[in-house]
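Q: What would this chain look like folded?
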Amino acid sequence: MNLFGVMDVSGSALKAERVRAEVVAANMANAETTRTADGTPYKRQQVVFESSGATTAFGDVLRGQPGVHFASMGTPSAAGAIPGGVAVSGVVDDTSAPLMRYEPGHPDADANGYVAYPNINPLTEMVDLMGATRAYGANASALQAEKNMMNASLDILK
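A: My prediction, written as C-alpha cells:
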C-alpha cells in the first residue's frame, strides 16, 4: 500500500456508505408507494457490500462453506479495485411480502378491498441510516488523520 492507500480505502468506504444512505432515503421516501411502473408496490432495497482487492482470511474461511454464496468475497476484483477497500456489489430488492391493509376506497385496492403497501419499517430504516452516518463519519475521521500524518511528514522535511 502506498502513501495514499489509506485515503483510497477510506474513499471507497465513503462512496459505499453514501450509496447506502441514498438507498435508505429512497426506502423512506417510498414507504407508502402502492404503485410503481410495473403496477406493484415499491419493494424495499438493500445495499450489498463486498471487499475489494486483497484476499482476506475471513473470506478464505467463508469461501467454499456450504450455504455461503459469496462467490466474489475476498477475491481480487476488476482492475481499479482498491486493496482493502469496500465496493457496492449490488442493490437487491427485499423479497418479503407486502403489507396488506383494508382500505376499500383506495384506487389500488384489490377485489377484497385490501391494498398492498411496501414492507418498510421506518425504525429499521432509521437504524440503517444511523449506521451509514456513523460509518461515513468514522471514515472521514480516518481520512483526516491520514491527511494530518502527511502534513506532519512534510513538516519534518522542511
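The beta strands are 45-52, 85-93, 99-102, 114-117.
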